[in-house]
Design brief:
The complex is a heterodimer of chains A (about 280) and B (about 90). Chain A is about 20% helix and about 25% strand. Chain A is of the alpha/beta class and about 280 residues long. In chain B, strands 1-2-3-4 form a four-stranded antiparallel sheet. The chains are: A alpha/beta (about 280), B alpha+beta (about 90). The interface of A and B includes residues 180, 183, 184 and 213 of A.
């Protein structure tokens, strides 16, 4: 646990002045801090502090590091506490191939469009869903314990040092899509040019229920893998309760669930000492 | 086991050849299937899809690295081979 700053009250000090000195927006943050319970008991009137009084100064946003970044083998995670944002980014290094001689070669424009479309789908299905909070004894956790962090997911096209090698097979437009898959161990994703088409796997006929193959495979790469630390691909055999959760993006729907952030939480918990994270809600 | 013989196996023959599967599931065919099963509608044909024919999916471990899944379809009162696939155990669909 970090050592707290102790302020000894001098003549002319007020809680407002002390708060300003230590970067707190309000004197109440200091006065109401749990560490100052004894002080409050002695000085029930916050306007009547006395020289010699000792006040514990809790950490402030201005006194703690609020931005963290960690690059990992399969993704990078940025924490921007002042903006209440967690940003997960994967670098995708593409290999574009054609199914056979019946399909034309990928054009530069088509490659760019594929990436941009994949990025949009992943953003739509995964970003802004998980509302995450932190707790703990670190200064960071004490300052940001009431902050609800939004979480965004992004893919970035790179030509080297990708987190994932993404092979995209061009197939005739409108043809049956080949199998799409990922391999957590080798950090490989296999997609195809028909994976931008939504599929009515639930058979409801409703657009809102349709499945996005790219968003599903991204879910695996984001940690929903039985081979990752979370040890669960979130795909279940018949008989398991979650097997019936057809609306799940890791099943045949497009909705994210709290459990889909398990890997992210595991990674966040490694980023800031004495700080633990949890999903407060899923939007 | 030669590929040709796998393609001719009934469910009973497959169990005799490979033993009890590590996983098995029965489901109805649909026009749109998840990626792992994406080739089944084409293999079964439109009539079977329209009828929502039942498919038995059974998976065996072939080696430390490979699984084998065989899909069977109910025809003439027995589970007949529909399609099979050997796949890397590290692959997730």
């Amino acid at each position: 646990m970090p050592k707290d700053t102790i302020h000894t009250v001098r003549r002319g000090d007020t809680l407002g002045k002390i708060a300003k000195k230590y970067g707190h927006a309000s004197w109440k943050t200091i006065y109401d801090a749990p560490e100052n319970a004894k002080f409050r008991k002695n000085r029930p009137d916050p306007n009547a502090i006395q020289p010699g009084d000792k006040i514990t100064i809790p950490p402030s946003a201005g006194s703690v590091v609020g931005r963290y970044f960690k690059n990992m083998p399969r993704m990078s995670i940025s924490i921007d506490a002042p903006k209440a944002l967690i940003f997960v980014q994967q670098k995708w290094q593409y290999v574009f191939v054609e199914k056979d001689a019946t399909v034309s070669k990928w054009t530069s424009k088509e490659k760019t469009k594929f990436h941009n479309d994949a990025d949009k789908i992943i953003w739509k299905r995964w970003s802004g869903k998980f509302k995450i909070t932190c707790a703990g004894t670190s200064d960071f956790a004490r300052v940001y314990k009431d902050t609800v962090f939004n979480t965004n997911f992004d893919i970035k096209r790179v030509t080297s040092s990708g987190h994932w090698t993404v092979t995209v097979t061009k197939v005739p437009a409108g043809s049956k899509s080949p199998q799409s898959s990922i391999n957590w161990g080798t950090q490989v994703v296999n997609l195809d040019s028909e994976d931008m088409a939504k599929r009515d796997l639930r058979g409801t006929g409703k657009d809102k229920d349709k499945f996005d193959p790219v968003a599903h495979e991204f879910g695996h790469t984001a940690g929903n893998s039985k081979f990752g630390p979370a040890a669960r691909g979130d795909e279940y055999p018949a008989g398991h309760a979650n097997f019936l959760d057809k609306a799940s993006i890791m099943n045949i729907g497009n909705q994210v669930r709290k459990r889909h952030a398990d890997h992210l939480i595991l990674m966040l918990n490694k980023m800031i000492k004495d700080t633990t994270w949890s999903v407060k809600s899923v939007g | 086991m030669a590929e040709e013989s796998v393609a001719e196996m009934t469910w009973e023959a497959a169990q005799e050849a490979f033993g009890a599967p590590d996983a098995q599931e029965v489901f109805a065919l649909r026009a749109e299937m998840v990626d792992f099963r994406i080739h089944l509608p084409e293999a079964a044909g439109p009539e079977a899809v329209a009828a929502g024919a039942e498919v038995l999916e059974a998976t065996w471990s072939l080696s430390a690295a490979q699984n084998r899944t065989i899909w069977f379809i109910q025809r003439g009162g027995t589970w007949q081979h529909l399609l099979h696939q050997d796949w890397d155990k590290g692959t997730e669909y």
